[in-house]
């Protein structure tokens, strides 16, 4: 039973890691980036999606944790499972109405596409720039087509097109952001570990017979986000938009910073 339990938790973790990044990108694809109105809506989409997620997390931690500790762990896990199946059913109902990206290379595996650029760049590492940009073998990379960063990847131009090379460069540009976000991940992980351990040592009884589960203390994180997202989206972003003339108010990089 213990083995089955932990295997189930690992499967849940794999499933969550697979759908969370996809649902955000797929949701963003439903907006036209060239339409000013939809660009504003796209900016708000991420805010309100996070708002909905935090509402769900807060509700789940208030209700499910109480059920698990006071009634039944099976019931506590069963109720979220039913809601997950219901959400999947509702998601599939809209299959015919979704927008699907027709971006170049969409029919090719992105890992294979980007990985091929690195492989070809390594294969051609001994070639000179003159050999690499041989007009008889490949298209010349014009100044407005390719970036000047990570020029060693341009050696893959013999067998890869400009878009694929620029995609590979974009992945490398994400590395500093990824490393910076590791610090946030370390801090954020404390709410699900240290908070619970500290909560377990506290007197959490509200009244005789009613004890707040230690894991429910995570709700303070979600509650803070729920309070500040409307302020950010309805107050701060319109003010920023009036200064920057950017439909999103501020850029994605500025949001991270």
UniProtKB/TrEMBL annotation:
Superkingdom of source: Eukaryota
A Pfam short name: PTR2
Signal peptide: 1-17
GO molecular function, one term: transmembrane transporter activity
Subcellular location field: Membrane
Chain ranges passing through the membrane: 45-67, 73-94, 171-190, 210-232
GO cellular component: membrane
Main location: membrane
Membrane topology category: Multi-pass membrane protein
Keywords, in A-Z order: Membrane, Signal, Transmembrane, Transmembrane helix
UniProt record similarity statement: Belongs to the major facilitator superfamily. Proton-dependent oligopeptide transporter (POT/PTR) (TC 2.A.17) family.
Protein name according to UniProt: Protein NRT1/ PTR FAMILY 5.11
Species name: Noccaea caerulescens (Alpine penny-cress)
């Amino acid at each position: 039973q213990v083995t089955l339990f932990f295997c189930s938790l690992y499967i849940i973790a794999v499933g969550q890691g697979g759908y969370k990044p996809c649902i955000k990108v797929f949701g963003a694809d439903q907006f036209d980036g060239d339409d000013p109105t939809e660009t504003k809506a796209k900016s708000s989409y991420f805010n309100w999606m996070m708002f909905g997620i935090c509402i769900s997390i807060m509700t789940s931690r208030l209700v499910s944790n109480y059920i698990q500790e006071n009634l039944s762990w099976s019931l506590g896990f069963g109720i979220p499972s039913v809601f997950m199946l219901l959400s999947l059913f509702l998601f599939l109902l809209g299959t015919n109405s979704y927008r699907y990206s027709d971006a170049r290379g969409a029919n090719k595996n992105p890992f294979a596409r980007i990985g091929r650029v690195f492989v070809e760049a390594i294969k051609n590492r001994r070639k000179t720039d003159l050999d690499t940009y041989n007009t008889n073998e490949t298209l010349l990379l014009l100044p407005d087509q390719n970036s000047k960063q990570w020029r060693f990847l341009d050696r893959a131009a013999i067998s890869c097109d400009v878009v694929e090379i620029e995609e590979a460069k974009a992945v490398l540009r994400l590395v500093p952001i990824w490393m910076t976000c590791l610090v946030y991940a370390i801090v954020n992980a404390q709410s699900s570990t240290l908070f619970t351990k500290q909560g377990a040592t506290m007197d959490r009884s509200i009244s005789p017979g009613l004890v707040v589960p230690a894991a429910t203390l995570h709700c303070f994180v979600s509650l803070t986000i729920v309070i500040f997202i409307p302020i950010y989206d309805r107050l701060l972003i319109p003010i920023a938009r009036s200064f920057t003339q950017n439909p999103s108010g501020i850029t994605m990089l500025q949001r991270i910073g």
